Structures are given as C-alpha cells and as structure tokens.
Amino acid sequence: VTQPKELREVQQHISLGQFAQAAEELSRLQATDQSDLLETLSEGQAAEVFRFLDPAYQARVLEELSPPRVLRLVETLDPDDRARLLEEIPAEVARRLLSGLTLSAELMGYPPESAGRYMTPEFLALAPGMTAGEALAEIRRKGRTAETIYTLPVVQPDGIVFGVVHLRELVMADPDRRVKDLVDPGIEAVLATEDRERAARLIQTTDALAVPVTDARGRLVGLVTADDAMDILDEEGAEDLARAGGASEPLDRPYFSVSILQLARARVVWLLALAVAATLTVNVLNVFEDTLATVVTLALFIPLLIGTGGNAGAQSATTLVRAMSVGEVESGDLSRIVLREAAAGALLGTMLAAVGFLPVWLFAGGRIATVIALTLIGICAWASLIGAVVPLTARRLGIDPAVASAPFITTLIDATGLILYFLIAHAVLF
Amino acid sequence: VTQPKELREVQQHISLGQFAQAAEELSRLQATDQSDLLETLSEGQAAEVFRFLDPAYQARVLEELSPPRVLRLVETLDPDDRARLLEEIPAEVARRLLSGLTLSAELMGYPPESAGRYMTPEFLALAPGMTAGEALAEIRRKGRTAETIYTLPVVQPDGIVFGVVHLRELVMADPDRRVKDLVDPGIEAVLATEDRERAARLIQTTDALAVPVTDARGRLVGLVTADDAMDILDEEGAEDLARAGGASEPLDRPYFSVSILQLARARVVWLLALAVAATLTVNVLNVFEDTLATVVTLALFIPLLIGTGGNAGAQSATTLVRAMSVGEVESGDLSRIVLREAAAGALLGTMLAAVGFLPVWLFAGGRIATVIALTLIGICAWASLIGAVVPLTARRLGIDPAVASAPFITTLIDATGLILYFLIAHAVLF
C-alpha cells in the first residue's frame, strides 16, 4: 500500500536538503515504494538519501533497482558503509557488485565485529615534519575525499603511525609549529583485528573523534570515526538487551518491516532451547512427586520461589554483563566476584525472608513458613552466584557470554532451586 | 590498601600526557589513594586527569580534597560536566560549591535527562552574513573557550538559531563565501526541555558533531556535542539492560567500588516488588489446589509452562522497548502491534507444541500431552501480546516503559498463564 502522506514528507525533506530525515521517512515505506521513489530522484539526491539508510534497508532497496543504478549508488557510499551493506545482501548479488567495486573486498577480509570492518580507508594522513600551515593547505587540497578531517593520523615515512592531531589544534596553532608537536598523546591506535567495541570505547573516553587502525606491524590501514563509534555502542547495547530478553540477535531492521513469520523464526530457536532446558524442572519434580502428593501446599510456592531466584540471577547477570562490556571486570576476578555475589544474594534473601515469614505463617503454618524462608535465603545466594559466575566463565572459555545470559541462567536456577526447595522441605517437614 | 603497580601506571600515563588512560587507572584505586595522588600533581595535571573521571568518581574524590582545591578543580570542568557532577555530590556540598561557581546553576534548572542538562553553554556562534574567511578568523580568536569548533551554530542578531555550519565546510570553502550559504540543512535544533535521547539520536543519524539547543522561542542556549551523545546512548542502553534484568538503575559506578550492602540495596526494592507480585501465583494455585491434589502430574509442568511463557513475553518486551527507543514504534501503533504479536506468539507456541507433543505423550499419556500442547499455544500468544502491550501502554500513560519491563511482565504472565493452564486442564481432563 502506498502511503501518500509519508511519500510527501520524504519529498519535502529532500527539497529542504534534509537527507537523514528523508531516509528515516523512507524507511517506513514498502520496499517497492522506496525504490520507485529513488528512481524518481536525481542521481545526486538518491545517493544522499541512500547513504543515510540502514544497511539492512539499503540491501532491500537494491534488490528492486536496475543493476547500473545499483552500482552507481553503492559507489557513492563510504567504504566502511559499503562493507556493511555487502554483509546484508545475498552472496551472489554481493559477488556481482564486488567485481565492479574497489576497496570493499579489503575490508571484508577482517573478522565480523572487528575494528577493521568499521574503519574507513579513506583518510588523509599528515607527516610529522609538516608545519600547521602546510597541514591546513594539504587538508584544503585533499580533504574532500577523506571521511573525516577533524582527527587526522600522523604517519612516518615507513607507514607507521606516529600519532593523531586534531583539526582544532591545527586551526588554533601558530602556522609555523610542527605537526609532531601538536600530536595528542592520549589517543592510541587499535589493531584492525581487535574488537570494534575497543575502538568505540577509546573514542568515547578520550577527546578523539577518530582512532587510527593499524596492521600487526603498526602501519596505518584506516580510521574508525565518531559516527561509527556511536553506531557500535548503540548496536552493542541492543545486542546485550536482546540477549537479556532471550533472543540471539536484535532485529536488524525496523519492527514493522519484519513479517510475523520472521518474528517467530527469530525467536523460536532460543525459546525451544530454553524449553528443552526447562524439561530439567519436570525431571526434578518427578523425583519429588511423592513429596508433592503428600504436601500439595508445597506446590503452591513453586512459581514464587523459582521466579524470585530467576530474578535475583538475572539482576546479577545483567550487572556483570555490563561491567564486562565496559571493562570494569575481567574473567580473572572470578573468585572475588563469587564471594561478593553470594554474600549480596544471601543478604537479599534474608531481607525477603524477613518480610515474607509472617504472611506465609498465617497462610500455611509455621513449618511451611520456615521452609519458604530458608529456601528464599538459599535460592537468592545461589542464584546471584550463578548469575555472576556463568557469564564470566563463558567469557573465559571463549564462549560468547550472551549465551549465558539471563534466560538461560533463569532456567538453570529453576531446576537447581527446586532441588534446594525439596531438600529443605524434607529436612524441616519429615 | 595502596596498590603500587596501579599507582605507577597512573603516573606513567600522566607523564606521557595520556590523561584519559590515567583517569581509567585512577578509577581502580581507593578514594583516599585517588585524592592523595591528585594532591601530588601540578594543578594543570590534576585538572586534566580529573575531567576524564566519571561524575560519580569525581564526587568521591572531591570529598577527600581541601575546599580551595575542590573549587579550582571543578572550575576547570566544562559546564555540562559540572552540572552532572553536582548531581552526584551531597546537597550541602553542592550548595557550597555553587556559591563559588557560575553557569552550572542555569543548567541545573532543566529536568534530569533533558537535553538542557547535557548541553554546553560554552559555544562559539557565527553570524549568517560572515564570510568563511571571517568565520575562521573569529574561530582562531575566540575558539579556545568553546567546547567544540567542529559544528558551529549560526545565530541571527535576535538570538534565533539560523542553522549550523561544519568547520570542514569553512576550511574547504572559498574564503569569500557567506556562512549562511554553507549551513547544513539536515541539522535541526532541539528544545532544552526535550529528552536527551532525541539530541543524541539526531547526532547519530546525521553528519553533525553537535546539535543546537534552544529555548521555547528558538533562541540558542547551548550545544549537545558528539561526546555527550555517545555517553547518552551508552547510558540509555545500560538503563534498558538493567531494567530488563530487574533493577531500576544501572550501577553508576564501577562494579568493585560498590559494597555488598550497596549491591543488595540496589536490587532489593525490585526483587521485593516482584516477589509480592508473584504471590498472585500462590493465590491462583490455591484456587486450583483440589485439581492439583487429584492430578499431581499437572504440577510437574508448572515451571516449564510459565518459564516458556515468561521467556516469550520477555522476547517481545525487549523487542518493543528497543523499537520504541529508536523511534520505530509509537504508542499509537497499539492495535497493529497487538495483532502481530499475538499471531507471532501463537505461531511460536504451535512450533513448540509440535516438538513437545510426542515426548510428553510418552511421559504422561495422551490427555496430559493435549493439555500441555494447547497451553503452550495459548500461553505463547498471550505472553507475546502482554509483552508488547504493557510497555506501549505504559508509555502512552506517561509511565516509564521500563517499569513494564521483562521481569514484571514475566510475573504477570506467570499468574495468568497458570489460570489458562488449569482451565484447559479442566476442559480436557474432567
């Protein structure tokens, strides 16, 4: 269905030169409407709108356009954006495109989510011996093709990175000062094979608007810029959130452009895996079926107890996932963390037990209340410990810590928490 | 305990001029060691390290320093960073500081998490009629005190924002071109009272390294810069994650600097609220206690069924929270979303039921297997619907959608899912 109001808004943004806003409105249209609209634009306008689209969208639009048009649009993208687009389109289409393009193949050689994938090879490098005045003249001459001129790499004749210099310093400095004396000592380079998040965090925590990316020998191969850093941090946050919510990846395209079948498919694998893991709880309860048949009241508290355990585990898991992603915690800190989380969990459980003891006594009697109170303390301590240990151990073993995220931990706690519950019940009641 | 290795690393970073790295190492020390170290530095060095510290850390360090030293350190901060620091320190200390400072009080007048709190009032504004050459001369003369010179606001004589211009355009342009012809039409201004996330997303989706912030009449009051945008997106991501994991706020200081008591305190309120909500499940089961006593086998599947429902609900809740935060979904889309999520959930439940039917038949017989299969379909559809509707409705009612995040939704689904389970069991078994 064509939505004339949204079409009009796209065209209005384009006529005002607001291409990012036009791209955002365009994202809300159907793929065929999007490509129809792009066909009506001048080459220059289409390219401006196209570069502000998400890679997943660009891929969809391309499938609807004629091949020469596709090639011209893709060529106008920055090389790093081009590399990300190539990931989104079917392999066969990508091969055809690559034969007509330069540079992207090089970026595609780096591992997914590495700094190399997100860098731009279109940088303007300065020499350490230049003066500030010479550097500014060089920027005026050659700066048009560089992705950024705000943070500039300074490179020795052998290609090794000497440092970076900020345009601000060049503009403000005496024109006769040497570039090497204006270098910002706070900005380190990252390796092209390193995690993209390290490059992004460096930009976030320093004054840099770009960090240099080098090969293993320290030679400059590209720059990760602030706009990429923002996308990286946003995507990493979205990934952590999706995993905490029980999905392997966030949706990589806007919500309404995903079909119901795609929604279900994106969720079913994790949900099925979690359900299979949850059959553990059936087995545990099967073992204790006689106890349950004798004291049916015990069944009433099962959802409450395992729910509380799961929540306590999820709290410590998300705290630790975040602490690891900002680098506050290393996998070597394991034993300190075990002690802290178990103690914090036992303290939490004691608070809950203190609040709950009297109401449960009134509802189900003193002995059941004792069982519930002891189980709350035990299950909170155990859950907090598991919630912290599993993501840390996963990282140490080189498994993605997200696999050990909240829903899996919760399921693990469900089964083990039930064992704890029935053991305590046996000890107190029989 | 003084950690000499880390102390040495801080000093080494400082001697190399790597102040961001020095601040990071400093963060790992005890508060008293931090202030001792700062006392040994020159005024300039201390200020450089101090400004790279997190506001929560700055506050701790300040408590250990002598008052005149405190005032001098705080004065070297950018005004927006100063405003955030003032939030972290005790009210009485803040009052004392404010009497010695200018400007911060003004920023503190805007609501928490608004663009006004995160803007810098230290900008350099250009006039529309200036030439590029005149603008560059103005920047050389006055740019030292501005927080950024890369994206510059262009302001009419009446104070109204005309647009923004990028330093890149000024450097590359013919020196005789007018600033007003170089303005980037894609960059909009935000209101000081608007949500900080809107300013950050504008920077993320456009080429801007700053967006102008205006009062209600469109007059320039400050700039939100790219480094603030990165912090905002990172904090918003951390908030969403913390809430998905059942905590009201992310820890605002590094993991190991928080005591066990503080950890427990940060978690207990939500955990207690969730546990109180979970007493609903006890009541539901109490109603069906006779059924449970007759068919104890039904109890075995309770954790599996409510766990699966909770996971399905968490999946759709996190998808929708993310979609809302990037603006893909508005609360007005409610009815479309209800249909999509219920359909996707029913589809998911059918897939799980298809996989599970035979094993449950072998374990517990055909009639129980029928109950479980029907419950899985119903609970997944219901949970996906609830997981989507609750955050959207919360936003429409002006409640923070995070209050409707995964753990609360899970608890709600636990109780309602149990009702569904026993109704289906009654219909099939009796």
What can you tell me about this protein's structure?
2 copies of one chain form a homodimer. With 430 residues, chain A is mainly alpha-helical. Chain A is 66% helix and 6% strand. Chain A has helices spanning 4-15, 19-27, 31-40, 43-51, 55-64, 67-75, 79-88, 91-100, 104-108, 115-118, 132-142, 167-172, 196-205, 226-244, 260-287, 289-294, 297-300, 302-325, 334-364, 366-396, 406-429; strands spanning 151-155, 161-166, 190-191, 210-214, 220-225. In chain A, the strands form 2 sheets. A 3-stranded mixed beta sheet of chain A has the order 3-4-5. The first copy, chain A, has a two-stranded antiparallel sheet with strand order 1-2. In chain A, helix 13 links the parallel strand 3 and strand 4 (210-214). In chain A, helix 3 (31-40) crosses helix 5 (55-64) and helix 5 (55-64) packs across helix 7 (79-88). The model of chain A has no long low-confidence stretch (mean pLDDT 84). At the A-B interface, helix 2, helix 11, helix 12, helix 13 and helix 14 of A face helix 2, helix 11, helix 12, helix 13 and helix 14 of B.
Task: List descriptors.
mainly alpha, 66% helix, 5 strands, 430 residues, homodimer, 3-stranded mixed beta sheet, elongated, two-stranded antiparallel sheet, 6% strand
Summary, kept brief:
Chain A is mainly alpha-helical and 430 residues long.
Radius of gyration of chain A: 28 Å
Shape of chain A: elongated
The average pLDDT score of chain A comes to 84
Low-pLDDT segments, ≥5 res of chain A: none
> If interface size is counted as residues with C-beta under 8 Å from the partner's C-beta, which chains form the largest one?
A-B, 118 and 118 residues
Structural classification of chain A: mainly alpha
The amount of beta strand of chain A, in percent, is: 5-15%
Order of helices and strands of chain A: HHHHHHHHHHHEEHEHEEHHHHHHHH
**Number of beta strands of chain A:** 5
Biggest beta-sheet profile of chain A: 3 strands, mixed
Number of helices of chain A: 21
